[in-house]
Write a structure and sequence with these properties.
It is a single chain. Helix content is 40%, strand content 25%. It contains five helices and six strands, in the order βαβαβαβαβαβ. It has a six-stranded parallel beta sheet with strand order 3-2-1-4-5-6, with helices on both faces. It has helices at residues 11-22, 36-41, 51-55, 72-81, 96-109; strands at 2-7, 26-32, 46-48, 62-65, 85-89, 113-116. The protein has a single domain, classed as Rossmann fold, CATH 3.40.50. Helix 4 (72-81) links the parallel strand 4 (62-65) and strand 5 (85-89).
Length: 117
């Protein structure tokens, strides 16, 4: 079973949440939102208002990033540094240099990194 952690609770995150819940190979384990009550309303076993706290959750294998675009690079970098696989909504990052840094970190940490469409 692959444990998912979600960063963000918006419309697109809710759509992927439904797919994860229907899967027999994946489980929603954690969610982080700037507003803890929104994270709690997402109905994951673990709710956080701080990404670093969620990244310490041992049940999270893959982090799905569904926050506003300008936040993608920093959040993805934090996840990769923590050794978590990343599925990041488009656009992946704001510029090519950020994408190169993300790919390099994923290769260094030997973790999966993919842009979601």
């Amino acid at each position: 079973m692959v444990g998912f952690g979600f960063v963000g609770t918006g419309v697109i995150a809710r759509k992927l949440k439904l797919a994860v819940e229907r899967s027999d190979r994946a489980a929603l384990e954690a969610v982080v939102s700037r507003d803890l009550s929104r994270a709690q309303a997402f109905s994951a076993p673990h709710s956080y208002d701080n990404l670093q706290d969620m990244l310490r959750c041992p049940q999270v294998d893959v982090v799905y990033i569904a926050t506003p675009h300008p936040m993608h690079f920093e959040e993805a970098k934090m996840c990769l540094l923590a050794g978590k696989a990343v599925l990041c909504e488009k656009p992946f990052a704001s510029n090519l240099e950020q994408v190169k840094q993300m790919v390099a970190k994923a290769q260094e940490k030997q973790v999966f990194l993919m842009e979601a469409l």
